[in-house]
Amino acid sequence: MVSLSSLLLLSSLLVNPVLSTKTTLDPDTHRELLLNGRPQIGLWKSLLKEQKLKDEQALLLSTEKNAQQPFLSSTKKELFEPHCFPQRISHFDDTVNGTFCQRYWINTSFYREGGPVFLLDGGETSGKDRVPFLEKGILQILSNATNGIGIVLEHRYYGESVPVKSFSTDDLRFLNNKEALEDSAYFIENFKPPPSILSSSSSDALHPNNTAWVYYGGSYAGARAAHMRKEYPHLVWGAIASSAVTHAQINFPQYYGPIQQYAPEGCIDTLQTAIELIDHLLDQPEPIPRYLKGLFGLEELVGNEDFADVISGPLGYWQAKNWDPKVGSNEFYNFCNTLTAGGAGSKVGLIRIPASIINYGKYIKENVVARCPRSEGKPASDIEDCFGTSVDSKFVETDLEQTWRLWIFQVCTQWGYFMPAPLEGPRIISNKLTLEYTSKICRQAFPPGKHFSVPEWPDVEEVNRRGDYEIEYDRLAFIDGDRDPWRPMTPQSDWAPRRKSSVNRPVHLIFDGVHHYDENGLEDHTEEPPRIKDVHALEVSFIQEWIAQFHEQKGR
Ligand SMILES: *[C@@H]1O[C@H](CO)[C@@H](O)[C@H](O)[C@H]1NC(C)=O
Ligand SMILES: *[C@@H]1O[C@H](CO)[C@@H](O)[C@H](O)[C@H]1NC(C)=O
Ligand SMILES: *[C@@H]1O[C@H](CO)[C@@H](O)[C@H](O)[C@H]1NC(C)=O
Ligand SMILES: *[C@@H]1O[C@H](CO)[C@@H](O)[C@H](O)[C@H]1NC(C)=O
């Protein structure tokens, strides 16, 4: 083992953002395309390629400019700079002993000696996307209320916290729950604030023996928050698990339930009727299916399943809603408005195509298909490139830009959450979306390696044996949104045992809430809508009580 003191020295070094030349899609595009685990990987890759060209041109331009003005810095200084914690590549595999830089962002401006540390787990995205929660969201709110420190910790493999040289099946073998849990534990146990940030405190003042650490996570990271509190109670004094998916499940058609239940009724009725007819038309002999696809701008797309997958894309916008329109997307309602706009239908042979399908097609053509970059002279293959899944070779690139592989790998190995159509009842997605089809990517993208093979089906037991729907602990809070499509996988699912809220085991369901609605905040908190002010006030009140308990127990 490398000695700890030499590791900790490193932690005060800033990660230099200028050194990073990795091209990434802007977070909105990235999130949108990877929403709910059914990525349009081909489109994602085409857009990445375009972005790369743009980046290269921009870099060329800026170096030319800098040559003329040598003192002008080419990168804007961000308010928050990431720091580097030397993390072990593996906590369990003795054949690899190195460390990598796990990034974190910290703010100590509210801190007074004896105050707690709030650690926000970045989960399955770049930690940078979570920095707003430090500036004006949950970390800032709780730190201000308790004189605490806020930290965003990037998850291994995401953003720039990458311990490997590729995202091949073998190199992804350290991306799992056990390693990620141990990362957080090791971080909490060994964290020393960079002297430039906090110089006065003694060297072990922030050790969990002396300071209350409170873990926060939303969604996947919410499950981690619950697991951390239960499995490392000596390190994690309290935890808030927001939209915490503590129940993993291979087959997850229930994702669509809350959308059907809570989205505008007229929109859902129209969609259900349209989907039924679309499935009927797809079952007819050619040229009817091709004609139908043509209405969506997808005439050249070969697979009926791929077609069904592309047209289900807008449903992901339900999850992307947020009470703050600047953070979330209202696109779901634009989709509904287009779908239900009425108008004239059309006719193919003896079959009447209603206006809803024409409108649906127009929406997909203009908002999804139009984003597929077309090269001169070969439009057909471009559509298949963007949206087809029949060719395995499309999914085998393993360089570090293929970040779509990360969450999919976690899905394929441990979490499941494939979202096929339900086998009975009204549907808002096509019945061509089967479990077989929605899990096909696992076999296409991750051929067996030398050190690791993806199991035939995800080992969801690895998650569920950590507590599942029943997980509970003192000073572990569950916050959910009533109409979150992920609520069926949380301890506040309709299938989970009912809970009674208390200060030590708080549970709260945000009315008209979707996915981790408590995580973000406004600069001026008094401007937040009442239901968000309420949940923040609730969190402040139980956290203050938990911190008081800490001081009482430590005799201070
Ligand atoms: C920390 O937060 C405070 C208050 O929100 C802000 O003024 C300050 O700039 C932040 N500190 C850093 C290092 O970004
Ligand atoms: C890693 O460390 C362990 C324990 O010190 C040692 O047994 C092993 O040989 C080391 N592995 C490598 C690849 O250096
Ligand atoms: C911190 O909390 C106090 C008391 O609620 C509030 O008046 C103040 O505006 C907050 N500060 C920030 C920077 O949010
Ligand atoms: C923390 O407390 C435990 C239990 O009292 C003790 O064994 C350990 O040495 C302490 N660690 C530090 C760094 O103070």
From TrEMBL:
Pfam families named among the record's database cross-references: Peptidase_S28
Keywords, sorted A to Z: Carboxypeptidase, Glycoprotein, Hydrolase, Protease, Signal
Database matches in InterPro entries: AB_hydrolase_fold, Peptidase_S28
SUPFAM superfamilies: alpha/beta-Hydrolases
Signal peptide (residue range): 1-20
Keyword Nucleus: no
PANTHER family with a match to the protein in the record: PROTEASE S28 PRO-X CARBOXYPEPTIDASE-RELATED, SERINE PROTEASE 16
Family: Belongs to the peptidase S28 family.
Protein name in UniProt: Serine carboxypeptidase
The organism of origin for this protein: Kwoniella bestiolae CBS 10118
The organism's taxonomic lineage, starting at the top: Eukaryota, Fungi, Dikarya, Basidiomycota, Agaricomycotina
